[in-house]
Amino acid sequence: MDVFVARQPIFTKSQKLFAYELLFRDSYENTCTCDDGDQATSEVICNSFFAIGMDVLTGGKRAFVNFTENLIKKEIPLLLPKEVVVIEILETVEPTAELIKACEKLKQAGYIVALDDFVFHPKFMPLLDIADIIKVDFLTTIGHDRKKIMGSVGGRSIKFLAEKVESRADFEQAVKLGYSYFQGYFFSKPLVLKGKSVPSSKINQLRVLRVLQELDKENFNFNAIEKFIMYDLALSYQLLRFINSAAFCLTNEISSVKHALVLMGKNEIVKWVSLIVMRTVGDNKTDGILVTSLVRAKFSELLAERVGFKGRESELFMMGMFSLIDVFIGRPLKDIMAELPISEEIKSALLGEYNDFGKIYHLVLSYERAQWETFITCAADLGIEEKTIPDDYQKAVAWADEVCAL
């Protein structure tokens, strides 16, 4: 499934690239067609981190991301790496006590906070104590107002960003007034970038809802949450792509879905799931791929003890689960593997290497495809009695059917 994000550069007064603002798009048409701010921001975050990749979008520069009042109160910004994003508070936000408290938490956590399309009003004074950057719309203000806004912040060390700068005259005036950053058509229109996202299915929606139900329990259980996610290819992939982002600074490979969940913790899981819920879902064309992936995952897991890999069942399950991820997404498997923080054994096996995991993977594929000569060779290499395999495969099929019927 194709996904899109637009980026517009933000420059310093010496016209050096400072950052990008990321904007919602649903096609190469360079306009925003979404009226739901929560959905638009959720799509931008998911498409940027899960599908396209922040390294591609920003090349290491910061990313300004718009946030609604609802998303700020839910602490969704805290899910993103403070070294990467600038939290841009929309002009429609009401500075309630609850909102101010959430913004103070962002500030204390080390985030850069920007106020979008700022127009001074006394009610915004608490936000001025939090803001690092104020954006002023040069299309809706004139020279005197552009200067007056700067004086309204008092002695606070806030930097100003002139947005919608349409001409050299606007730019030169902004520089003269003391603005630090500049954005607008004078420099560049937003550029739309495309990526590939995992299609969502009804099974995906049910899993997400069940994760939320489990998280709502007073004594929630990581094992229960793991089961809801690990059986859904879309959720598993999005989880691993996200935890491999700069937000978590991973130093080790992920051995299982539970491992990823424990690293995230309950609060981060809630925020991550909230993002997934807010996205548009409903593609059922991938159900067949999901069933096959589940069968392979369970089949590989059942073989673990037979081949001397007791204790590594979760890794073998992950190997089978991601065996069709390239078909699911529509991207080269090698590229996808490079983005996931899973073991080199799993990656190399899925890419065709005949290592210890590769032998199991080849056995799974050969049995599934009734390639009996290859199956016999793999079974011999693994020291497995051939007669034990049919029962394991039937168990895997029955289990996958049961999971998909939930």
From TrEMBL:
InterPro entries xref list: dGMP_Pdiesterase_EAL/HD-GYP, EAL_dom, EAL_sf, HDOD, RNase_Y/CdgJ
Positions of the HDOD domain: 198-388
One of the Pfam families matching this protein, by short name: EAL
Domain EAL residue range list: 1-204
Protein name: EAL and modified HD-GYP domain-containing signal transduction protein
